[in-house]
Amino acid sequence: MGLRDVNIHESNGDTIQSLVVDETNVFFDFLRNGGSEDQTVDGSSTPVVFSTSVVPAGKTLVISRLLIYMEDSTNFTSIAFGGMTALTNGWELSINGTTLATAKDNKTLATFMFDMTGDTLFGKENQTMVGRFSFSKFINGAGGLTIREGEVLSTIVNDDLTDLDFLNVMAQGYYTS
Prior knowledge:
single chain
């Protein structure tokens, strides 16, 4: 491992940003509540928070994307959340408790994401959905969602998701000093 020069280019090939990247600063982690990444929990009476680890002192975390995987034994529709009915309170994305987005159904979740694929069965009978929030797409492929020292990125379950078979979220990005 060591330092590498990385150039970020526009679609026409012009360099818009040059970075020196240290592989030890690459960030891949599931959002967790305790040790669990599975968000099929009941947050209807007390919201359940799933978060990245706290950004260490002297660092900033730049999250370029979130990957979402959802599985259910019931068919997905645009007006449902997974294969369940639409949520009453919603599934939230937040930084330090400040809500960035709330989804109550698959249609809204798909609107927030850059990519979303439904019915990716992976050899299973269950219905699945794989999605990607690409924060770098908002600013022409450079940067991402900035999480500062002491902050966390979270998803908050405000409804009963126990009828889903599985739901998890992975954050990917890098640390800067």
